[in-house]
Amino acid sequence: MIRFLLLLKVSLRAIARNKLRSGLTVLGIVIGVAAVIAMVGIGQGASAQVQAQISSLGDNLLTVFPGSDRRGGFHGGAGSLSTLTDDDAAAIAAQVPEIVSITPVSRSSGQIIYGNQNWQTEIMGGGVDYLSIRRWELASGSNFNESAVRGAAKVVILGATVAEQLFAGVDPVGETVRINKMPFTVIGTMAPKGQNTWGRDQDDTILLPYTTVLKKVSGQTRLSMIQASARTLEELPAATEAVTSLLRQRHRIPVGEEDDFTVRTQQDIAQIMGSTSNVMRGLLAAIASVSLLVGGIGIMNIMLVSVTERTREIGLRMAVGAKGWHVMIQFLSEAVVLASFGGLLGIAIGLAAARLVAHFARWPIELPPQAILLAFGFSALVGIFFGFWPARKASRLDPIEALRYE
Known about the structure:
Number of strands: 10
Order of helices and strands: HHHEHEEHEHEHEEEHEHEHHHHH
Oligomer: single chain
Shape: elongated
């Protein structure tokens, strides 16, 4: 322990002889480690936020979308071919045991009016299980029942944004609003959900029975989608396969032809978002690696200069009994101290940068302690790797030649 402290003292004294040069030497390490810390903090926070948003879409969610129209030379986008019906949803509920709850969904948009206030919003039509599938709590009031769905009742549940715009903090339950000139009774309000993964305000919506949307609002005969909840997350792949097979059979799709629908799950969305995050993380890691490489080369360069400047000192140490490995450890320790100091400074700057981004961009950060330890350890390894050659060169100097060096 005493020898280690003595070695550290000697190393610090050697580094302090030229403070400006030492500071410029570790700049690359500082930038590299700061980039790594900021990258990990922001990246982990973004991943956690994306996972939370994906989870907010629903429990073990499986969604069936209409497919794309490919008639003749025409190729429409996803959803251009309306093929989903209420009977499809009923068949899935009856014949796919992995599915525990299901809701047909019909989407539209329109103006909702209350008194002299009006608001353009998304109109979402769902079944009784829509809110439970989406894990959407009610802030006030109640959900509609099966009787309201069968009778296409003119009842509505307001999203938090719509309720705030029309009623300014007053509970709207029991009030009457107009949607496309028709009166609807407000039976509840949904709890706030915030933005989704794509930045859209999930609360800027109203919920009606899907039959009401089809018959009295949009005039459509086909569903916009079907959403279902699997019993467990592990059963999602089996549920996806069963739903796909059932719908192909119901839609009479011959073997070898493409589906006229698309089945997506939370896992698919997570994989897509994860791959995007990995690309960004890889780019940031490449930038950080280049900075660390430049910093390591700077340390090697300055240590080689130090060996040349201190040749007589090395010869004198060897002349009074120092071994080659003593000299090697001394120079190697100086390189490690330089890199470690740069690592500590980089960690501090990286943490500050991550917190600034979180504050001004309202971006969450999540930085596990092991990431900080890994960054510091990596900076020390850079010092060892790039300091080894100059240290080895110093240890192999001939004492007589070194003493003659001018």
